[in-house]
C-alpha cells in the first residue's frame, strides 16, 4: 500500500536485520515533505531509490522539507545524508528535541545511556552503533513548538501537534479533512515487533503523565487512519484497540510495581526482571528495555511519595512504601 491519502506515501524500510521502519512522505507537485529521515543509511538505501522511481528527473527541482518527529537515531540519523543529496533541505523539529538532534554525545549521555547511574549502562559496542546510526546528528533549521500548519494544497493541511512522552519534543502530524494521523512513535502499544511479527521490546516511554496525555490527545482527534513508524497501518477499531493497549500497558506496569513485596529494596535491574517475568509479554533478552518505562513510573511514584530512593554502593535502590 503506497498512497492511501492523496499525496501521502509510505516507504517500508528496515533497521539492522529485523526491525521494521516506515518512512512517510507528503508530496504536492513541487513540494516534498519528508516525515523523518531514518537512520544514517536509510536515505540512500530506501528513501532516495523510492523517490527517484516516483519523481524521476523532477527530484532536483522540488523543494524538500523535513519534519523530524523526534530525537531518536532511527528518526533523525539520515538527516546528514539527506542534506548531502538535497543541499537546500529545510529541517524542522520540536524545540525540546533540537539539542539532542544537534549533539550526539548529549543524546547518548541524557537519553540512551540514562540508566548508567542505575548500573545499567550501554556496552561500548551499542554506543558505537548508536553513533553510527545517528549520522552525527546536526543542525535543525527551524525549531517548532506544535500548533503549526503545513499547507500542502491537494496533499492536505497538516497540523503539527506536540505529543510528548516518548521524547519531550515528539510531534505528530494531523490532517483534519482526511481524519488521518502520522504519529511516529507517539504511542507504542505493548511494545515493538520484529519483522516476523514477534513482540521483542517493551514500549519505551519516559514520562508517564505526558505519554498518557498524548494517547488521550490522539484518541480525542478520532482518526480514521493512523500511520506509525514501526507498526502496520491502523484503521477504525484497530486504532482504538491500539490506544487502549498503550494505556493498559501503563496500568499493568504501574500495578506490577505496586504489588511487589515491600520487604526490601530493588535495583532497577531487579525491577526489570520482576516485571518482565511477571507480565510475560516479552522475551527475557528484552527485559532490560523495561528500564525506560519503569524509570518513568518510579519517578511518578517518587513524586507521590509511593517510593523511596537510597543510594547504596553507588547504585540506586528503590523501596516501595
Ligand atoms: Zn522509532
From TrEMBL:
<dbReference type="InterPro" id="IPR050855">
    <property type="entry name" value="NDM-1-like"/>
</dbReference>
<comment type="function">
    <text>Counteracts the endogenous Pycsar antiviral defense system. Phosphodiesterase that enables metal-dependent hydrolysis of host cyclic nucleotide Pycsar defense signals such as cCMP and cUMP.</text>
</comment>
<protein>
    <submittedName>
        <fullName>MBL fold metallo-hydrolase</fullName>
    </submittedName>
</protein>
<keyword id="KW-0378">Hydrolase</keyword>
<dbReference type="InterPro" id="IPR036866">
    <property type="entry name" value="RibonucZ/Hydroxyglut_hydro"/>
</dbReference>
<dbReference type="InterPro" id="IPR001279">
    <property type="entry name" value="Metallo-B-lactamas"/>
</dbReference>
<feature type="domain" description="Metallo-beta-lactamase">
    <location>
        <begin position="20"/>
        <end position="230"/>
    </location>
</feature>
<dbReference type="GO" id="GO:0016787">
    <property type="term" value="F:hydrolase activity"/>
</dbReference>
<dbReference type="Pfam" id="PF00753">
    <property type="entry name" value="Lactamase_B"/>
</dbReference>
Amino acid at each position: 500500500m503506497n498512497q492511501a491519502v492523496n499525496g501521502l506515501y509510505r516507504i517500508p524500510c528496515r533497521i539492522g536485520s529485523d526491525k521494521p521502519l516506515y518512512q512517510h512522505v507528503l508530496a504536492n507537485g513541487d513540494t516534498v515533505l519528508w516525515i523523518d529521515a531514518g537512520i544514517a543509511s536509510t536515505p540512500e538505501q530506501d528513501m532516495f531509490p523510492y523517490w527517484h522511481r516516483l519523481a524521476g528527473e523532477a527530484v532536483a527541482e522540488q523543494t524538500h522539507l523535513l519534519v523530524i518527529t523526534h530525537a531518536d537515531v532511527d528518526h533523525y540519523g539520515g538527516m546528514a545524508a539527506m542534506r548531502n543529496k538535497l543541499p537546500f533541505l529545510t529541517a524542522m523539529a520540536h524545540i525540546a528535541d533540537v539539542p539532542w538532534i544537534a549533539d550526539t554525545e548529549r543524546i547518548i549521555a541524557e537519553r540512551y545511556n540514562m540508566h548508567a547511574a542505575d548500573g545499567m549502562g550501554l556496552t561500548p559496542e551499542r554506543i558505537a552503533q548508536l553513533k553510527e546510526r545517528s549520522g552525527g546528528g546536526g543542525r535543525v533549521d527551524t525549531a517548532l513548538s506544535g500548533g503549526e500548519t503545513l499547507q500542502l494544497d491537494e496533499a492536505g493541511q497538516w497540523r503539527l501537534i506536540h505529543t510528548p512522552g516518548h521524547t519531550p519534543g515528539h510531534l505528530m502530524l494531523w490532517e483534519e479533512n482526511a481524519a488521518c494521523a502520522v504519529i511516529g512513535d507517539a504511542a507504542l502499544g505493548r511494545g515493538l515487533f520484529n519483522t516476523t511479527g514477534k513482540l521483542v521490546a517493551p514500549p519505551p516511554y519516559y514520562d508517564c503523565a505526558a505519554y498518557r496525555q498524548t494517547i488521550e490527545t490522539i484518541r480525542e482527534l478520532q482518526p480514521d487512519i493512523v500511520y506509525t513508524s514501526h507498526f502496520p497501518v491502523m484503521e477504525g477499531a484497530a486504532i482504538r484497540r491500539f490506544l487502549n493497549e498503550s494505556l493498559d500497558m501503563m496500568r499493568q506496569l504501574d500495578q506490577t510495581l505496586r504489588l511487589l513485596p515491600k520487604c526490601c529494596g530493588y535495583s532497577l535491574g531487579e525491577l526489570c526482571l520482576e516485571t518482565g517475568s511477571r507480565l510475560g509479554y516479552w522475551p527475557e533478552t528484552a527485559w532490560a528495555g523495561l528500564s525506560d518505562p519503569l524509570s518513568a513510573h518510579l519517578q511518578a511514584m517518587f513524586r507521590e511519595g509511593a517510593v523511596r530512593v537510597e543510594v547504596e554502593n553507588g547504585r540506586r535502590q528503590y523501596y516501595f512504601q
